[in-house]
Automatic annotation (TrEMBL):
Keyword check for Signal: yes
The keyword Signal is annotated on this UniProt entry: yes
Protein name: DUF547 domain-containing protein
Coiled-coil features, chain-numbered ranges: none
UniProtKB keywords: Signal
DUF547 domain residues: 87-198
Length: 259
């Protein structure tokens, strides 16, 4: 193996283990607390109703079945979101706006490149996935998926439950939820998503005290805190309490598809 190839493989390995830090993009911090505007996410909900299959431990998306008409509907939904200035919305509407946009964009990226075995196969030659690709323009600003998650959602809301509602089209990821985010019931939806993931084997797998956690808890340790903090967080949602001493971590990057 050449030195170049070795360095390339090492760079991919580090990309998996080193997640972006929360780095506020101040431009998007503005909101209008007096706004009563409600963003219509029904088109995205209709697509989820049609193509998302929900099972007890995993939701899967029927990418191969999406019709040309529904691909157009998805594109129009995204275009409608990106044509407005989310800074004019109140905080709850903003949160629903950004999460729904993130998830819709992720599905669009897969559909635009389907068939593909994993989202990590997308992006440029030296990229581990498409997260840094500038996918949309909002109010004259070009944004990537990483911008939405790590420069807007995480630093503005500072809520660890964000990790349970943004989906990366992978089996190891918290599920793509069957219901779009709604501004009037965000807290219940966030708690429900946390509870679903933390009680699934891909979130927390406790085999007689030998605990395997999702790599999310390793990558985003800055959000979840120490093992003591993490244990408290997990046990807030666990049906059976877990004790963390030296957990291992794992993540399944295979596409969350259903054929």
């Amino acid at each position: 193996m050449s030195v170049f190839a070795l360095l390339f493989l090492l760079s991919l390995s580090s990309a998996v283990t080193a997640a972006p830090k929360a780095d506020l993009w101040p431009y998007w911090q503005t909101s209008n607390p007096n706004s009563a505007t409600q963003v219509d996410h029904s088109a995205w909900q209709n697509l989820l109703n049609t193509y998302l299959l929900v099972a007890p431990e995993q939701t899967r998306f029927r990418y191969a079945a999406v019709s040309a008409k529904d691909k157009t509907s998805l594109n129009q939904y995204i275009a409608g979101l990106t044509s407005r200035d989310p800074r004019r919305l109140n905080r709850n509407e903003q949160f629903a706006y950004w999460v729904n946009l993130y998830n819709a964009l992720t599905v669009k990226v897969i559909l635009d490149h389907y068939p593909v075995s994993s989202i990590t196969k997308l992006g440029g030659l030296f990229s581990f996935g498409p997260w840094d690709d500038k996918l949309v323009t909002i109010d004259g600003k070009k944004l990537s998926l990483n911008d939405i998650e790590h420069r807007i959602l995480r630093p503005i809301w500072q809520d660890k439950r964000i990790h349970y509602v943004v989906n990366c089209a992978s089996l190891g990821c918290p599920d793509l939820l069957p219901e779009v985010m709604h501004a009037d019931r965000l807290n219940a939806q966030l708690d429900g998503a946390a509870r679903r993931f933390i009680n699934s084997p891909k979130g927390v797998d406790d085999q007689g005290g030998k605990v395997r956690l999702s790599s999310i808890y390793d990558w985003y340790q800055s959000d979840f805190g120490s093992l003591t903090d993490l244990q408290k967080h997990l046990n807030n949602y666990r049906k059976q309490p877990v004790t963390l001493t030296k957990p291992s971590y794992d993540y399944d990057w295979r596409l969350n598809e259903f054929r």
